[in-house]
Amino acid sequence: MTVGEALTAFESSWVEQQSITPRTAYRRTLRLIGLYLRDHPPGVDAPLAELTPDVLTGFVVWHRAHALADDARGTHKVTVHVARLGGFLAEQYGMTDLAFDREELRALVPDDGST
Prior knowledge:
mainly alpha
């Protein structure tokens, strides 16, 4: 299984079951992860085993550094998405090192006073 296939599996089996607002937000995050992986290893065509915690934490830092949300609160929401994705990958594919604590990811995003 590739990284891209795993992202698609998460979307089809978990994201699609959500109501419209969270479903839209998760889809946006998954698209952004795909864009991030175009320029950052391992890429979406790599084996899933190459997706490491550093890749997903790097995405969170990249998201905030590139101001892809209006404020820290927006990136904090993305950390919830990444944690949920990591939990899914841990449960479905045994990628237990990707089962992040949400607060661990949130700590990567400096609080700008908007929360």
